[in-house]
């Protein structure tokens, strides 16, 4: 039979499998064990349900190679999202208990277990299912029955593999662990066998374990007292609108943008109106030089929005267009950020120029408007 190759490559199919599972179950806290160069973590950081993402690997060097890809991007500071996200990388062994991984919804171990020494593999079920006890565990490992179909594989697929299991071996290990620690397990995989070799099964075999009991807060609290053995080598706290500092920054930016947009609209409409009414001579030297005088000279009552009588419509006062806060608060994006008018006032006070009565944002009418 022809050697089998995969499109997309098998490692990408494994990552996609995990990502789809995350999108289906919406876990908030996800950890990846044996995270290596953090490729799966990078893919998972875009899953909107995740607020806490952690990676563990025995090798600090391999994690450090690409851990910078897990840092927030400049655009994430410019336009923070509502979601909070903290990504942490730990150096340590999955054969050791560390309280940092308690309380997780999902823990993934993609192509990890076959790299564990016999002693580590023996300790691993107690650590992951007994101690960390996440709601869901995903474990993938090579299916040795598929090896004869792969090009250039003699004994194992990788020099560092300590073993490779056939379907029966993996299933009996998984079923024993599930039974011992109160989980149920289902088997699936990625990398379909070619037609005629269906009995071989998937190239990568996967066990999905689901905890079948509820862990009490007291038990978690007690486990939290265990000594920390992992070393934190990276931590990124993403900017989030749940943090008042970023929320205020977003509100001030939005309010200034909207107030300037309203002023610009008024200027354009006043200009158009005046231009239509101007004599031919006046139109020749258009626009007028002094825009403050011009704004005032305009028939303000002719523009509904310029009517000073209404507290919800913009008006001209001294050298500024005043945009009432109520007007700004009626803009969906502002409302979405502030929730109440009181919050809007609190967020912009001291950051944005307000009218004497504190009810309007003032946007100066500058000479440059004359060219607008
Ligand atoms: C084949 S790589 C896994 C790659 C990664 N999960 C992926 O799918 O792209 C196995 C990783 O397990 C790590 N590893 C081996 N023994 C470990 C242990 N006892 N504890 C934690 N990580 C371990 C290795 O350093 C290596 O990065
Ligand atoms: Mg491997």
From TrEMBL:
Gene Ontology molecular functions: metal ion binding; RNA binding; small RNA 2'-O-methyltransferase activity
Q: Name the reaction it catalyses.
A: small RNA 3'-end nucleotide + S-adenosyl-L-methionine = small RNA 3'-end 2'-O-methylnucleotide + S-adenosyl-L-homocysteine + H(+)
Against Gene3D superfamilies, the record matches this protein to: Vaccinia Virus protein VP39
- Superkingdom field: Eukaryota
Q: What is the protein's name according to its record?
A: Small RNA 2'-O-methyltransferase
SUPFAM superfamilies, per this entry?
A: S-adenosyl-L-methionine-dependent methyltransferases (SSF53335)
Lineage summary: Eukaryota, Metazoa, Chordata, Craniata, Vertebrata
Known InterPro entries for this protein? Answer: Hen1, SAM-dependent_MTases_sf
Enzymatic class: transferase
Q: Which Enzyme Commission number(s) are on file for it?
A: 2.1.1.386
Q: Which UniProt keywords apply?
A: Magnesium, Metal-binding, Methyltransferase, RNA-binding, RNA-mediated gene silencing, S-adenosyl-L-methionine, Transferase
Q: Which family does it belong to?
A: Belongs to the methyltransferase superfamily. HEN1 family.
Cofactor(s) annotated in UniProt: Mg(2+)
């Amino acid at each position: 039979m022809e050697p089998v190759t995969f499109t997309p490559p098998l490692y990408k199919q494994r990552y996609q499998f995990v990502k789809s599972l995350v999108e289906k179950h919406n876990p908030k806290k996800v950890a990846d064990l044996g995270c290596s160069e953090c490729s799966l973590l990078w893919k998972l950081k875009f899953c909107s349900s995740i607020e806490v993402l952690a990676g563990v690997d025995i090798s600090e060097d391999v994690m450090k190679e690409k851990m910078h890809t897990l840092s927030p991007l400049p655009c994430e500071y410019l336009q923070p999202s509502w979601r909070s996200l903290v990504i942490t990388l730990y150096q340590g062994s999955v054969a050791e208990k560390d309280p940092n991984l308690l309380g997780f919804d999902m823990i993934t171990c993609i192509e990890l277990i076959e790299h564990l020494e016999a002693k580590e593999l023996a300790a691993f079920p107690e650590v992951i299912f007994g101690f960390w006890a996440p709601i869901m565990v995903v474990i993938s490992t090579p299916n040795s029955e598929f090896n004869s179909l792969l090009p250039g594989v003699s004994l194992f697929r990788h020099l560092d593999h300590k073993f490779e299991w056939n379907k029966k071996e993996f299933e009996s290990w998984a079923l024993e662990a599930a039974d011992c620690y109160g989980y149920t397990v289902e088997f699936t995989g990625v990398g379909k066998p070619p037609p005629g070799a269906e009995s071989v099964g998937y190239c990568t075999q996967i066990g999905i374990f689901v905890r079948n009991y509820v862990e009490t807060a007291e038990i978690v609290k007690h486990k939290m007292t265990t000594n920390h053995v992992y070393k934190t080598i990276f931590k990124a706290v993403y900017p989030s609108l749940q943090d008042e500092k970023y929320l205020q920054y977003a509100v001030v930016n939005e309010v200034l943008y909207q107030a300037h947009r309203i002023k610009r609209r008024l200027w354009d409409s006043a200009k158009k109106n005046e231009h239509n009414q101007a004599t031919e001579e006046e139109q020749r030297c258009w626009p007028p030089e002094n825009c403050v005088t011009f704004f005032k000279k305009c028939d303000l009552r002719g523009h509904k929005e310029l009517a000073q009588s209404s507290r919800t419509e913009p008006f001209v006062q001294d050298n500024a267009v005043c945009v009432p806060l109520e007007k700004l608060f009626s803009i969906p994006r502002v409302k979405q950020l502030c929730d109440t008018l009181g919050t809007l006032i609190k967020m912009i006070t001291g950051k944005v120029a307000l009218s004497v009565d504190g009810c309007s944002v003032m946007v100066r009418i500058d000479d440059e408007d004359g060219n607008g």
